[in-house]
Fold Protease HtpX homolog.
Amino acid sequence: MNMMRTAMLLAFMTALFMGVGLLIGGRAGMMIALLIAAGMNLFSYWNSDKMVLSAYRAQPVDEGNAPELFQMMRTLSANAGLPMPKVYVYDSPQPNAFATGRNPQNAAVAASTGLLQRLTPEEVAGVMAHELAHIQNRDTLTMTMTATLAGAISMLGNFAFFFGGNRDNNNPLGFIGVIVAMIVAPLAAMLVQMAISRTREYSADKRGAEICGNPLWLASALGKIAGAAQVIHNNDAERNPATAHMFIINPLSGERMDNLFSTHPNTDNRIAELRKMASGFDAGGSTPGLRAARPTRTARTVPETGSGRGTSEPRKGPWS
């Protein structure tokens, strides 16, 4: 089902490329757009994860510089029955996280410094378990390729002015093509939001709660992240809005409306579902994954990943 969804998404994106190319440059423009789309599809399959990690300047971590986070991911991966993904940290005061990669064997998870500083170890475990659920459900291929293709579609708006004004292309729809491209460009992120079913977030929440062993950990984390996203800007996300759907909470704004064009379901609805799910778990926390996922508190080992914004704040996460 996920492979079919990915194929349909790529077909839609390719058709969009070709349609705008036809309007701007006639048949020649359509063929050029087809070649570009084919190249982008192939490139995205192999490299979109690297591009997303690079866009956020994420740095890899290991047992040497982030032992608690690394051990947490090893335990959670074992709980999920997944290979250990690569673990990254990116410098942002906004607490958030995302997963990427074309399959579980080539996956990566990235957490912000703000997430590690502001959330408890249990909440971090809930968030990272949610990201592992996306990997297990093979959502990451669709998410990363969509982000790359949406960014490419947005560039058509910039090129439209150059190609649309060419009077030698004998295309009476050239001007219309320019207008269409100008509309498509700012709405590219919205098209991505509609193309990707937001029900995947509910599925990842449910599976993530099972992986970490306690739905309330993730519920608490979602509340904190959503509140922080309203007041703490993520500058890298603002420059790459087509990647917003990859995060556990929309990094662009504190969107609270559960409407068609939201990148994520309503946070309150997600929390409510997790609380319902918690009633099926042992109140005393006797689920195996519950204890296994909790990290030990050792020395502070937050890696330096950039400007170090927010490093002077009290550390409330695993590195207290």
